[in-house]
Input
Amino acid sequence: MSAASNPWNRLSLGGKILLPLIALITFVAVGGAVLWITGVGPWATDWLIVTGQANIEILRFIAAATGILLFTVPAAFVIIFMELKIIAMMNLRLGPNRTGPWGTLASTMAGLKVLSKEDFTPRGVDVPVFTLAPAVAFLASVLTLLVIPFAPGMVGYEMELGLLYFFAVGGLGVVGLMMAGWASYNKYSLLGGMRAAAAVISYELPLILGVIGVVLLAGTLDLGQIIENQSGGILAWYAWQQPLALIIFFIAATAEAGRTPFDYTEADSELVAGFATEYSGMRFGFFFFAEYVNVFILSALTVTLFLGGPYGLFDIDPLLGALGITTPVDTAAIDPGSLGSWLLAIPLLVPAGLTLALTALVWMVKSSWGFIKSLVVGFVLANLLLMGALSIWALFSFEALMGIIWFLGKSFTLVALFVLMRATYPRVRIDQMMNFAWKWLMPAALLNIFVTAAAIIIIKEYLS
Amino acid sequence: MLRQLDDRLSEHLVVPAEVMDDTIELITWPASLPALMRTVREDGDLRFELLADMCGVDTGVTMQVVYHLWSPLSSDWLRVIADGLSRDDPRVPSVTFLWPGAEWAEREAYDMFGIEFEGNRDLRRIYMPPDYLGFPLRKDFAMPDDASRGPGEGIRHMETPFAPGDVRRDPVIRTSPGAGARIGPDGERLVIAASGSVDKDALDSGVIVEGALDSGRGPA
Amino acid sequence: MTTDRERIPSLDDPDVLVQTPATIYDAIPPLTPRTEREAEFYQLEDGEMFLNLGPQHPSTHGVLRVVLKIDGEKVVDLDPVLGYLHRGVEKICEYGDWHHAISNCDPLEYVASMFSEALPVLTAEKLLGLAVPRRADYIRVLAWELNRVASHALFIGWLALDLGGITPILYGFAERDEIMEMLAALTGQKLLFNYLRIGGVNGDLNHDFMSRLGDWMSRAGKQVDSQATLLNENEIFVNRTKGLGVLDQATALRFGMSGPPLRATGAPYDVRRAHPYSVYPELEFDVPTRTDGDSYGRYLLHIEEIKQSLRIIDQVLHQMPDGPVMAKLPRLIRVPPGRAFAALESPRGQYASYAISDGSDQPFRFRIHDPSYFNLQAIGDLTRGHLLADIIAILASLDPVMGGIDK
Output
């Protein structure tokens, strides 16, 4: 029997991987259905829940973290596209207009391109540190999203000390940059990393001190509670009570995210690409993603703290009540914890399984496409389906859906502001920006704290 | 202006100052250069403050260093030529004590002509690599070109233009060894071998090759 | 089946390991220093390191390489290394005839090549004692001033880009592109025009050029105004450039500087007025100067000069005479023996050439004086003790073009 006549040998590499996987998934699905029908499945689930009660929290965490990770990638793509397009408009250019409708897929394709590029490790670098640095930078920024409430009750992981967690984990990002700068065996990287360390640490202080005013007013570090306090329409936003803090926070956030005019870490006209000079392929992609995710996260936190979070401009509950529509906050319907051990399926099986299943489908229907192309299409379809499913899930609660829309709308408006700033301003010199942090922002933030505290005491003790 | 220059500088000048078009020309000895330059720069009636240009010149007989100066008081350029530098060991005092900006120009003149400027603090090559030998703008500098990479080196395109008419009239082709190698792809000597009557060994040895040239392409 | 190919050594191959210094603090091993200054420069003190800015770097305007000796971010000393774009134009010019020299000089100032290609033309005309037809002279001035606007618009963008602002350069390019398209319609080429000829210009004004020019004149300098709106009172831009790289007039003169860096110190040296050529004496325009001599002053001066150039263009269009655009000359020009020095005011300063002719059709010696070369020289004195970011800003404000510097 010759090799060519063997059907298995005629398959491409993709097929050799895909076919067993399809078989495996089919086997698991059929087997699971059989188990469920025969009653073994529910018993096993109950057993898992009963014996593994304590682990539900961990499962929930894993599911939320996976969801957040999955969310950040399209979010970064959207922000990159926004940046390309807005700056192009400002620059009298057209910007991306070829890939996808109105060029919307340009950033996605750029992301895929980054994936396919050579992952290069220069000679002389400190290999483990060099390799880990992008992951540290990326995870530090992504994990902060876990505590941001996207809608009332729709939060990755509810924490009493959400704000503290945010700053603690977010502060780790600079470690990643320093690792990259130090390990890259390149003087430009070293300077970039050192700049990042010096400046980020300087700007963390006004960033956190600026928030303290809000914390004093809210009396809590729980972000869910903070947005709840601002639920009464636009006038209830903390931005009106803490305008100075908002300005300080936004400026410090710009520096924290390393965006123009504080893009000292990359400073492409001085340090080539700063800490990322020696990175290529997806390792560079991680830094790149981290930067844009950071932009989104800091916008999201600004929205959460100062701009009403997921609540709209107006409190429409009375209006809806008059119309006879009630909007119960059905947190149980959207709480992933209610899924029990099936949470496991979300991070482990659903994305991969759905992608592969759709890939197989596409591959079979359109055999002229290669495996890779089918995989890409399958991945996109799977993502769309997942997003659709999430939206439908959110529809269980009208308020949650509106919350997501408001929240993302406000956040992306702030992101657009970041982008506009990038198109407008030159870069601040490092000593000027340190001066600004220590001589202006810090005293202003401290002043803000004292004034807020005094006002709270006066209002509480003497006026009421 | 001409008279003032002659009055003040007469002892430094080889020949009296002369006006050429819109330029006053002074020719001086290298040794008098610093004194002359100081006078034209700092004299209140002359004030040639701006060093408009500074370059070396190889006339084939001697070396020169030529300075062009500009003064707000004069409508003419002032050209100062330090003439008569020996070609074997050209030396001239530096003017960087008056114009620090002459430093790079002097480095360039050193780089291109090998002129030593005494008093320049940083006289090293500026364009050519530091380990380069030879001074490219000298007239005796053999200009290497593409032809020098092959065995028939030193042939310049401009000096031996290819004239197709000559070739057709005279089938005798004079070729340098391996000259055909630059035309054929992959190092095959295709050009003349196309006629089928060419001895490749003879081609290599560079003797006169007899044979018809059909292609109309001559030796490179 | 496949022949055994010779193994090509690759850097990925562990056998051809490149020996690298043990730590990144190791100095670049220098050659044996030739001068005391070089020896002193390559001597590192405690805490200092070398940083190679270029030849491949986003903001060294081409292939300039500056070896920086830095202490943290503070630049202790620096040593520009030239020659990465050295073509030996002066030597090439000696080996071609005078017409070749025009196209050989074209790429020197690749941002505004109408100026560098004028060098052999003006010099040969001076040697020949040739009077150019007046219309040709006016066309030349028109082309020069258009090119000056294009170059200055780009300068402003470059300065902003090197300071981290990404938008002004696109405005500069928008302005420049319109002019370049216009000149392409006139000359046939968009970057290296090769338009001027000994005795005139290559062709008369054509309809395409004139319609583009008329179109542009209605909104000339609009993009430059946009740039100015973005930068003039931009707090960050002003803070980055004001008081940075301050030159005083005496120093600038001693460094042989010319063009905007010199005029920003207050010296009104503009070859168009200081030593008039072509039809500039007939035209009304001012030589703007400033007294602050810093990067911000140089930037504002460029904007002023654009306005003056637009003024000149306006006058030229109104005064343009009729007539031939090319003197009647033989194709092979044998230039009489002699020496001539010709200078013109390029966007970067005084472009000059000194030619010696031996009576043949080739120049015996053709010296090119590039203003950027002399302007760049001041960078050492300007930047010592500043921060790394300031080096870039000062470098950009001196506006070097490496094509001319490296010749």
User: Anything to note?
Assistant: The CA atoms of residues 27 and 61 of chain B lie 16 Å apart. Residues 146-200, 202-220 of chain B have pLDDT under 50 and may be disordered. The longest strand of chain B covers residues 50-58.
